[in-house]
Amino acid sequence: MIKRIIFKRKNNYILKYSLLLLLFIIILYLISFYYFSNREYFVIPKFTDKYFVIPTNKEGEVVDYLDKKSLNNIDNEIQDFDFKNIDELDFTIQLYSNDNFENINKYLNNLLENKKEIIDHEDIFVFYKKTEIGTQYFITYKNYISKNNASEACDLLTIVKSCIILNLQN
Description:
By secondary structure, the protein is of the alpha+beta class. It has a domain at about 75-165: Alpha-Beta Plaits (2-Layer Sandwich), CATH 3.30.70. About 30% of the residues lie in helices and about 15% in strands. The protein is built from 4 helices and 4 strands. It has a 4-stranded antiparallel beta sheet with strand order 2-3-1-4. The longest helix has 26 residues, at about 10-35. The protein starts with 11 loop residues before the first helix and ends with a strand.
């Protein structure tokens, strides 16, 4: 006769108890799942305070000294300097630009001393533009009729490494 390992009468109680244990675990799992799924994990209390406060003065903070302007101290050397009239300039090559006139004057003197063989003093234009931010001073080289002429001259120019061509008519 063939031996029955699983369905022996002696081992039948192991099968019954294991099935009963499995059923008990499934029932326990379902009960715990039902209990924990219907339970609140944390409670957020209802917020009853004010979210923000509307101030009585809705205009904001008052800024002091709003009507004051910064003092522009123009030295006598700036007033005595001969600035060029840029109304007749079309296109020009910018050599240097700064908001401090002393730096402009130093650069111009250095340029005219070191490059006097290359640059004629009449080809240098020094002018300024006043804006809301302040005064910006410019040193430019020659007047050109078109941007192409200025660009061609810029390629041949050895004074500066890279050229900025200014269109002063706009």
